[in-house]
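ok so for the tutorial part 2 we go from a plain amino acid sequence to predicted C-alpha coordinates. step 1 is just haveing the sequence, like this:
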Amino acid sequence: MSEKYVLHFGSVTGMPFQYARAGRLAGINSANVIVVDRDSGKLRRQLPFDRALASPLDGLLHRAYKKAEFFLADVLPNTALVHYHSDSIFRKYLDCALLWAFSRPMVISFAGTDVRLESIARKHNPYVYIPSYSAGEKKIRRKLTWISKFIRYAATDYELAEYVQPYFDKVYYLPQPIDTSAFTCRLPAGDTAVPTVIHIPTNREVKGTAYIEAAVERLRSEGLKFSFKLLDCNLTQEQVKEEIAGADIVANEIRTGAFGVFAVEAMASGKPNISYIRDDLLEKYPAELPIVSANPDTVYPVLKKLITDADLRTEIGRKGRAYVEKYHSLEAVSATLKEIYCEVGLPC
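step 2 — the prediction. this is what the C-alpha coordinates look like for a chain of 348 residues:
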Protein backbone atom coordinates (compact mmCIF):
# COMPACT_ATOMS: atom_id res chain seq x y z
CA MET A 1 0.00 0.00 0.00
CA SER A 2 1.29 3.44 -0.91
CA GLU A 3 -0.72 5.29 1.74
CA LYS A 4 -0.12 4.59 5.40
CA TYR A 5 -3.03 2.71 6.91
CA VAL A 6 -4.49 1.41 10.15
CA LEU A 7 -4.19 -2.35 10.36
CA HIS A 8 -6.96 -4.21 12.18
CA PHE A 9 -5.41 -7.60 12.83
CA GLY A 10 -7.59 -10.55 13.88
CA SER A 11 -11.10 -11.87 13.42
CA VAL A 12 -13.27 -12.06 16.62
CA THR A 13 -16.75 -12.65 15.10
CA GLY A 14 -16.00 -10.40 12.16
CA MET A 15 -15.84 -7.23 14.25
CA PRO A 16 -12.36 -6.09 13.08
CA PHE A 17 -13.71 -5.95 9.53
CA GLN A 18 -16.53 -3.67 10.68
CA TYR A 19 -14.09 -1.49 12.64
CA ALA A 20 -12.00 -1.12 9.48
CA ARG A 21 -15.13 -0.05 7.61
CA ALA A 22 -15.96 2.44 10.35
CA GLY A 23 -12.43 3.81 10.16
CA ARG A 24 -12.74 4.35 6.44
CA LEU A 25 -15.95 6.30 7.03
CA ALA A 26 -13.92 8.61 9.27
CA GLY A 27 -11.43 9.14 6.45
CA ILE A 28 -8.85 6.75 7.93
CA ASN A 29 -7.32 4.30 5.48
CA SER A 30 -8.01 0.96 7.22
CA ALA A 31 -7.88 -2.77 6.48
CA ASN A 32 -8.69 -5.96 8.36
CA VAL A 33 -6.16 -8.75 7.87
CA ILE A 34 -6.36 -12.28 9.26
CA VAL A 35 -3.90 -15.15 9.02
CA VAL A 36 -6.20 -17.87 7.64
CA ASP A 37 -9.73 -17.77 6.26
CA ARG A 38 -11.03 -20.07 8.97
CA ASP A 39 -13.54 -19.61 11.78
CA SER A 40 -13.03 -20.43 15.44
CA GLY A 41 -13.08 -24.13 16.33
CA LYS A 42 -15.70 -26.02 14.30
CA LEU A 43 -17.72 -22.92 13.41
CA ARG A 44 -18.26 -22.09 9.74
CA ARG A 45 -19.89 -18.65 9.81
CA GLN A 46 -18.12 -17.14 6.77
CA LEU A 47 -17.02 -14.06 8.70
CA PRO A 48 -15.95 -11.08 6.57
CA PHE A 49 -12.40 -9.73 6.27
CA ASP A 50 -10.37 -7.64 3.82
CA ARG A 51 -7.40 -9.98 3.37
CA ALA A 52 -6.23 -13.41 4.49
CA LEU A 53 -2.51 -14.18 4.45
CA ALA A 54 -2.91 -17.91 3.82
CA SER A 55 -5.51 -20.53 3.01
CA PRO A 56 -6.65 -23.32 5.37
CA LEU A 57 -4.79 -25.80 3.13
CA ASP A 58 -1.42 -24.12 3.62
CA GLY A 59 1.00 -25.80 6.01
CA LEU A 60 2.45 -24.21 9.12
CA LEU A 61 5.76 -23.43 7.41
CA HIS A 62 4.05 -21.61 4.56
CA ARG A 63 1.88 -19.66 7.00
CA ALA A 64 4.95 -18.63 8.99
CA TYR A 65 6.59 -17.43 5.78
CA LYS A 66 3.49 -15.43 4.76
CA LYS A 67 3.29 -13.80 8.19
CA ALA A 68 6.97 -12.84 8.13
CA GLU A 69 6.63 -11.49 4.60
CA PHE A 70 3.53 -9.51 5.56
CA PHE A 71 5.18 -8.02 8.62
CA LEU A 72 8.43 -7.01 6.91
CA ALA A 73 7.04 -5.89 3.55
CA ASP A 74 3.76 -4.34 4.65
CA VAL A 75 3.27 -3.79 8.37
CA LEU A 76 6.62 -2.16 9.12
CA PRO A 77 6.72 0.26 6.16
CA ASN A 78 3.01 0.90 5.57
CA THR A 79 1.06 1.04 8.83
CA ALA A 80 0.37 4.27 10.70
CA LEU A 81 -1.21 2.39 13.63
CA VAL A 82 -1.91 -1.25 14.44
CA HIS A 83 -5.10 -2.27 16.19
CA TYR A 84 -4.85 -5.82 17.48
CA HIS A 85 -8.04 -7.80 18.08
CA SER A 86 -7.25 -10.59 20.55
CA ASP A 87 -4.49 -11.89 18.31
CA SER A 88 -0.97 -11.15 17.15
CA ILE A 89 0.95 -11.79 13.95
CA PHE A 90 3.74 -13.74 15.65
CA ARG A 91 3.65 -15.97 18.71
CA LYS A 92 3.78 -14.33 22.11
CA TYR A 93 3.07 -10.92 20.57
CA LEU A 94 6.65 -10.63 19.34
CA ASP A 95 5.49 -8.29 16.57
CA CYS A 96 4.23 -5.86 19.24
CA ALA A 97 7.73 -5.67 20.69
CA LEU A 98 9.18 -5.00 17.24
CA LEU A 99 6.60 -2.30 16.47
CA TRP A 100 7.23 -0.74 19.88
CA ALA A 101 10.91 -0.46 18.96
CA PHE A 102 9.83 1.51 15.89
CA SER A 103 7.55 3.73 18.02
CA ARG A 104 4.47 2.53 16.15
CA PRO A 105 1.16 3.49 17.84
CA MET A 106 -0.82 0.40 18.88
CA VAL A 107 -4.20 -0.40 20.45
CA ILE A 108 -5.55 -3.78 21.52
CA SER A 109 -9.11 -5.06 21.93
CA PHE A 110 -10.23 -8.27 23.61
CA ALA A 111 -12.91 -10.89 23.01
CA GLY A 112 -13.88 -12.15 26.48
CA THR A 113 -12.48 -15.46 27.62
CA ASP A 114 -9.01 -14.35 26.57
CA VAL A 115 -8.89 -11.84 29.47
CA ARG A 116 -11.83 -12.64 31.77
CA LEU A 117 -10.46 -13.22 35.28
CA GLU A 118 -12.73 -15.51 37.27
CA SER A 119 -11.78 -14.11 40.69
CA ILE A 120 -12.91 -10.64 39.62
CA ALA A 121 -15.88 -11.73 37.53
CA ARG A 122 -17.46 -13.71 40.38
CA LYS A 123 -17.39 -10.69 42.68
CA HIS A 124 -20.06 -9.13 40.47
CA ASN A 125 -21.61 -12.12 38.75
CA PRO A 126 -22.42 -15.48 40.35
CA TYR A 127 -23.68 -16.79 37.01
CA VAL A 128 -20.52 -16.32 34.95
CA TYR A 129 -19.12 -19.42 33.29
CA ILE A 130 -15.39 -19.78 32.60
CA PRO A 131 -14.92 -22.45 29.90
CA SER A 132 -12.25 -25.13 30.10
CA TYR A 133 -10.33 -23.59 27.21
CA SER A 134 -9.63 -20.46 29.24
CA ALA A 135 -5.89 -20.05 29.78
CA GLY A 136 -6.41 -19.53 33.52
CA GLU A 137 -5.72 -16.48 35.65
CA LYS A 138 -1.95 -16.86 35.98
CA LYS A 139 -1.41 -17.14 32.24
CA ILE A 140 -3.87 -14.35 31.48
CA ARG A 141 -2.15 -12.02 33.94
CA ARG A 142 1.27 -12.92 32.51
CA LYS A 143 0.01 -12.27 29.01
CA LEU A 144 -1.43 -8.87 29.94
CA THR A 145 1.78 -7.94 31.77
CA TRP A 146 3.82 -8.84 28.68
CA ILE A 147 1.53 -7.14 26.13
CA SER A 148 1.32 -3.94 28.14
CA LYS A 149 5.10 -3.54 28.02
CA PHE A 150 4.63 -2.59 24.37
CA ILE A 151 0.97 -1.60 23.91
CA ARG A 152 -0.12 1.26 26.15
CA TYR A 153 -3.80 1.45 25.18
CA ALA A 154 -6.74 -0.95 25.17
CA ALA A 155 -10.21 -0.49 23.68
CA THR A 156 -12.96 -2.84 24.83
CA ASP A 157 -16.38 -3.07 26.48
CA TYR A 158 -17.29 -2.19 30.05
CA GLU A 159 -17.24 -5.75 31.38
CA LEU A 160 -13.77 -6.58 30.06
CA ALA A 161 -12.32 -3.19 31.00
CA GLU A 162 -12.15 -4.11 34.68
CA TYR A 163 -9.84 -7.06 34.01
CA VAL A 164 -7.38 -5.15 31.83
CA GLN A 165 -7.49 -1.69 33.44
CA PRO A 166 -4.46 -2.20 35.74
CA TYR A 167 -2.20 -3.08 32.82
CA PHE A 168 -2.68 -0.18 30.41
CA ASP A 169 -2.20 3.57 30.51
CA LYS A 170 -5.79 4.03 29.36
CA VAL A 171 -8.71 1.76 28.49
CA TYR A 172 -11.28 3.17 26.08
CA TYR A 173 -14.88 2.04 25.72
CA LEU A 174 -15.40 0.89 22.13
CA PRO A 175 -18.92 -0.14 21.02
CA GLN A 176 -19.47 -3.00 18.59
CA PRO A 177 -20.10 -1.55 15.10
CA ILE A 178 -22.59 -2.91 12.58
CA ASP A 179 -23.81 -1.79 9.21
CA THR A 180 -27.38 -0.77 10.04
CA SER A 181 -28.26 -0.60 6.34
CA ALA A 182 -27.71 -4.37 6.17
CA PHE A 183 -30.40 -5.01 8.79
CA THR A 184 -34.01 -4.31 7.96
CA CYS A 185 -36.00 -3.22 11.00
CA ARG A 186 -38.95 -5.60 11.12
CA LEU A 187 -40.79 -5.06 14.38
CA PRO A 188 -42.60 -8.02 15.93
CA ALA A 189 -46.16 -8.10 14.64
CA GLY A 190 -48.70 -7.15 17.31
CA ASP A 191 -51.23 -9.73 16.13
CA THR A 192 -48.92 -12.76 16.20
CA ALA A 193 -50.77 -15.61 17.89
CA VAL A 194 -47.67 -17.80 18.25
CA PRO A 195 -44.54 -15.65 18.73
CA THR A 196 -41.18 -17.15 17.77
CA VAL A 197 -38.24 -17.21 20.18
CA ILE A 198 -34.78 -17.96 18.82
CA HIS A 199 -31.49 -18.83 20.53
CA ILE A 200 -28.11 -19.66 18.98
CA PRO A 201 -25.84 -21.67 21.30
CA THR A 202 -22.35 -20.92 19.98
CA ASN A 203 -21.26 -22.08 23.44
CA ARG A 204 -24.04 -23.67 25.47
CA GLU A 205 -22.45 -23.13 28.89
CA VAL A 206 -21.36 -19.53 28.26
CA LYS A 207 -24.72 -18.60 26.74
CA GLY A 208 -26.75 -20.35 29.45
CA THR A 209 -28.60 -22.50 26.91
CA ALA A 210 -29.73 -25.11 29.46
CA TYR A 211 -31.44 -22.44 31.57
CA ILE A 212 -33.20 -21.01 28.53
CA GLU A 213 -34.36 -24.47 27.47
CA ALA A 214 -35.64 -25.17 31.00
CA ALA A 215 -37.63 -21.93 30.96
CA VAL A 216 -39.05 -22.84 27.55
CA GLU A 217 -40.17 -26.28 28.76
CA ARG A 218 -41.77 -24.79 31.87
CA LEU A 219 -43.70 -22.26 29.79
CA ARG A 220 -44.82 -24.98 27.39
CA SER A 221 -46.02 -27.11 30.28
CA GLU A 222 -48.19 -24.18 31.36
CA GLY A 223 -49.86 -24.16 27.95
CA LEU A 224 -48.27 -20.97 26.64
CA LYS A 225 -48.39 -20.81 22.84
CA PHE A 226 -45.06 -19.93 21.22
CA SER A 227 -42.40 -21.40 18.97
CA PHE A 228 -38.81 -21.98 20.10
CA LYS A 229 -35.98 -22.39 17.59
CA LEU A 230 -32.54 -23.54 18.67
CA LEU A 231 -30.39 -22.39 15.78
CA ASP A 232 -27.40 -24.21 14.35
CA CYS A 233 -24.29 -22.33 15.44
CA ASN A 234 -22.73 -23.02 12.02
CA LEU A 235 -25.22 -20.81 10.21
CA THR A 236 -23.60 -18.10 8.12
CA GLN A 237 -24.09 -14.47 9.09
CA GLU A 238 -26.65 -14.06 6.31
CA GLN A 239 -28.60 -17.10 7.52
CA VAL A 240 -28.58 -15.82 11.09
CA LYS A 241 -29.81 -12.46 9.83
CA GLU A 242 -32.75 -14.21 8.14
CA GLU A 243 -33.60 -16.09 11.34
CA ILE A 244 -33.55 -12.88 13.37
CA ALA A 245 -35.81 -11.19 10.81
CA GLY A 246 -38.39 -13.96 11.23
CA ALA A 247 -38.27 -14.00 15.03
CA ASP A 248 -40.28 -12.10 17.64
CA ILE A 249 -37.87 -12.53 20.55
CA VAL A 250 -34.12 -13.19 20.64
CA ALA A 251 -32.88 -15.04 23.74
CA ASN A 252 -29.17 -14.37 23.67
CA GLU A 253 -26.77 -14.94 26.60
CA ILE A 254 -27.80 -14.91 30.24
CA ARG A 255 -24.57 -15.59 32.14
CA THR A 256 -21.80 -13.25 30.99
CA GLY A 257 -23.16 -9.98 32.36
CA ALA A 258 -22.72 -7.87 29.21
CA PHE A 259 -23.99 -7.98 25.64
CA GLY A 260 -22.21 -8.86 22.43
CA VAL A 261 -22.60 -8.29 18.70
CA PHE A 262 -25.50 -10.76 18.31
CA ALA A 263 -27.54 -8.60 20.69
CA VAL A 264 -26.68 -5.53 18.61
CA GLU A 265 -27.79 -7.31 15.44
CA ALA A 266 -31.06 -8.31 17.09
CA MET A 267 -31.72 -4.72 18.17
CA ALA A 268 -30.87 -3.44 14.69
CA SER A 269 -33.52 -5.83 13.35
CA GLY A 270 -36.12 -4.39 15.73
CA LYS A 271 -36.32 -7.47 17.94
CA PRO A 272 -36.40 -7.49 21.75
CA ASN A 273 -33.20 -9.09 22.98
CA ILE A 274 -32.67 -10.96 26.24
CA SER A 275 -29.15 -10.68 27.64
CA TYR A 276 -27.92 -10.52 31.21
CA ILE A 277 -26.49 -7.09 32.06
CA ARG A 278 -24.79 -6.88 35.44
CA ASP A 279 -26.36 -4.32 37.78
CA ASP A 280 -23.02 -2.54 38.30
CA LEU A 281 -22.59 -2.13 34.52
CA LEU A 282 -26.08 -0.80 33.75
CA GLU A 283 -25.20 2.69 34.92
CA LYS A 284 -22.26 2.81 32.52
CA TYR A 285 -24.42 2.37 29.42
CA PRO A 286 -26.68 5.09 28.02
CA ALA A 287 -29.93 5.32 29.98
CA GLU A 288 -31.99 4.26 26.96
CA LEU A 289 -30.33 0.83 26.62
CA PRO A 290 -33.34 -1.34 25.67
CA ILE A 291 -31.87 -4.80 26.30
CA VAL A 292 -34.11 -6.98 28.47
CA SER A 293 -31.83 -8.22 31.23
CA ALA A 294 -32.31 -11.77 32.52
CA ASN A 295 -30.09 -14.26 34.32
CA PRO A 296 -30.61 -17.98 34.98
CA ASP A 297 -32.85 -17.16 37.96
CA THR A 298 -35.06 -14.69 36.12
CA VAL A 299 -35.16 -15.88 32.50
CA TYR A 300 -38.48 -17.70 33.04
CA PRO A 301 -40.58 -14.66 34.11
CA VAL A 302 -38.78 -12.37 31.66
CA LEU A 303 -39.42 -14.71 28.74
CA LYS A 304 -43.04 -15.20 29.83
CA LYS A 305 -43.65 -11.45 29.93
CA LEU A 306 -42.29 -10.95 26.42
CA ILE A 307 -44.23 -13.89 25.00
CA THR A 308 -47.53 -12.68 26.46
CA ASP A 309 -47.15 -8.95 25.80
CA ALA A 310 -47.10 -8.13 22.10
CA ASP A 311 -47.15 -4.37 22.67
CA LEU A 312 -44.06 -4.62 24.87
CA ARG A 313 -42.23 -6.60 22.18
CA THR A 314 -42.99 -3.92 19.62
CA GLU A 315 -42.01 -1.08 21.94
CA ILE A 316 -38.68 -2.67 22.88
CA GLY A 317 -37.97 -3.56 19.26
CA ARG A 318 -38.48 0.04 18.16
CA LYS A 319 -36.24 1.35 20.94
CA GLY A 320 -33.58 -1.21 20.04
CA ARG A 321 -33.30 -0.04 16.46
CA ALA A 322 -33.04 3.60 17.56
CA TYR A 323 -30.36 2.69 20.12
CA VAL A 324 -28.21 0.88 17.56
CA GLU A 325 -28.49 3.71 15.05
CA LYS A 326 -27.34 6.18 17.71
CA TYR A 327 -24.53 4.19 19.35
CA HIS A 328 -23.50 1.20 17.21
CA SER A 329 -23.85 2.26 13.58
CA LEU A 330 -20.69 2.45 11.51
CA GLU A 331 -21.11 6.22 11.46
CA ALA A 332 -21.34 6.47 15.25
CA VAL A 333 -18.40 4.15 15.90
CA SER A 334 -16.28 5.88 13.26
CA ALA A 335 -16.28 9.05 15.36
CA THR A 336 -15.26 7.09 18.46
CA LEU A 337 -12.47 5.32 16.59
CA LYS A 338 -11.06 8.54 15.20
CA GLU A 339 -11.03 10.13 18.65
CA ILE A 340 -9.20 7.13 20.14
CA TYR A 341 -6.67 6.85 17.33
CA CYS A 342 -5.83 10.55 17.34
CA GLU A 343 -5.24 10.39 21.08
CA VAL A 344 -2.96 7.35 20.95
CA GLY A 345 -0.73 8.67 18.18
CA LEU A 346 -2.30 8.52 14.73
CA PRO A 347 -1.46 11.70 12.78
CA CYS A 348 -4.76 13.58 12.57
